């Protein structure tokens, strides 16, 4: 699968891509299993060589997409914790990368799913790769830590469960981990794009 065979990523196609990226809700739920208390054995057992192959295939796909969109950016690949992480980084003069993030990271999430599909098409195996663009996920992680801590504080003060905004399985895992580290409980509720975390005392 090449970028030419998928829906073009631009500001007018955000809603379509977001819908396509969330068609496989079962895969998202499986990815979150580790965050909900299950052992992420598959990630631990994934050979590094396979993850490196995923990174190479994904990088080729992204490079072609950037060429088609006439956007400058360097691609870094890192393998850690049973996942492949790809970062697209541009210098201060680079234009267009922000369009690949979109409002609230929606285009980034869609692009990540398209990249995973490209890896699946090329290798025959499902990928759990994580894509970042210009450090967006790092800033988003800080925000997720903040809302998780605020939710725990509210539960501690009021005793009532707190429902957070819907987010991706990757982001839910971050919040689950923060809440657990603070000694409180969390679980995911809802389906598809409405799936969210509920923080409580037990």
UniProtKB/TrEMBL annotation:
SUPFAM superfamilies per UniProt: R3H domain (SSF82708)
CDD domains on file: R3H_jag (cd02644)
PROSITE patterns: R3H (PS51061)
Domain R3H per the UniProt entry, residue ranges: 138-202
Pfam families per record: R3H (PF01424)
Bias kind Acidic residues: ranges: 26-45
Domain of life, source organism: Bacteria
Region (Disordered): 1-53
Bias kind Polar residues: ranges: 1-13
Protein name per UniProt: R3H domain-containing nucleic acid-binding protein
């Amino acid at each position: 699968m090449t970028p030419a065979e998928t829906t073009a990523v631009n500001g007018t196609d955000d809603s379509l891509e977001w819908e396509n990226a969330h068609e496989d809700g079962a895969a998202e739920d499986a990815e979150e299993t580790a965050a909900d208390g299950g052992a992420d054995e598959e990630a631990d057992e994934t050979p590094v060589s396979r993850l490196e192959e995923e990174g190479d295939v994904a990088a080729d796909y992204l490079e072609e997409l950037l060429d088609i969109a006439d956007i400058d950016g360097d691609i870094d690949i890192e393998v850690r914790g049973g996942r492949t992480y790809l970062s697209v980084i541009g210098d201060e003069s680079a234009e267009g990368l922000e369009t690949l993030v979109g409002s609230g990271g929606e285009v980034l999430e869609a692009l990540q799913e398209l990249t995973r599909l490209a890896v699946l098409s090329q290798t025959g195996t499902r990928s759990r790769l994580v894509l970042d663009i210009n450090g967006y996920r790092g800033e988003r992680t800080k925000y997720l830590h903040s809302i998780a801590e605020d939710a725990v504080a509210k539960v501690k003060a009021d005793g009532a469960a707190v429902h957070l905004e819907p987010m991706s399985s990757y982001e839910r895992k971050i919040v689950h981990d923060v809440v657990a580290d603070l000694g409180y409980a969390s679980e995911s509720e809802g389906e598809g794009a409405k799936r969210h975390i509920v923080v409580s005392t037990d």
